[in-house]
Amino acid sequence: MKSIRNFLCYFVISFFLFVGHTLYCQSDAASKSQFFDAKYAIIKNSVVHNDTATFKMLKNHPIRISKVNADTIFVELKQFGELDIPDNNLLKRVKKENVVMYILISEGTDKLKFTDFDLSPLVIPIKIRPVLDNNPLQFLGDVAIGPYFGLQKGSKSFNLTSQPTQTSTTFCAFGTPTMINLNPSNQSDTTTNTNTVLGISTGGGILFDINDLQFGLVGGWDWISGTASQSWVYQGKPWLSFSFAYNLSNQ
User: CA 177 to CA 92: how far, in whole Å?
Assistant: First the structure.
């Protein structure tokens, strides 16, 4: 019972820490990246405009979204670094200016790429434990809830007839508390009683996001402490699972 109380306490704390937290972490004017001023990138062959001319992008180029107004997306084409001028004592470093352009959604669906780091909650509802000794393949409700850290890559498409569509793929790693169900069938000492203890899950996975929906495949290892760790047959053994989440916060 003490382990269950600890897990419920952690769950409540995690809920208040993460509620309202968006799963998406791109850097635009309204929503800064969690870790750095991450880049959107305008895709090769996209058409952009300024007040006097129209241009076609010859390659992908990093940008910052300034604002979206009706069918117009205003962006800053980001320059790389600064210029070193060692021979000029009064002007040793000159920062390049970002060029402001705009994209017309009416010209078609304009897609922007992005890359960012992501820190978000991960819920693992069940674990698929492989055949081990006399134990068959099992689907166990050893729930794990905690944060993951990952590299996110994706794109965001704008369209006049619908809301923007965002898709991304995240390669993540996690370390979370987990509930472990002990019973005579998964312990080498078959005389032990059924019990639920708190353990640690670590691992990694790949997550897919489509707008507010997220699903993915994860895998890892579990560890428990105390005397039960010596008889639990799955101690440090690999497992597979899936993750599913929906972002309830307003974008």
Answer: 52
Domain chopping of the chain, boundaries: 2-25+115-246, 40-110
Q: Sign (positive/negative) of CA torsion 65, 151, 200, 191?
A: positive
What's the Rg (C-alpha) of the chain? Answer: 25
CA 209 to CA 219: how far, in whole Å?
18
Digit-coded pLDDT (tens) for 6-23 = 444 444 334 333 333 222
The sign one gets for the Cα dihedral 172, 63, 32, 251 is: negative
Predicted TM-score (pTM) of this structure: 0.72
Query: Which amino acid appears at position 39 of this protein?
Result: K
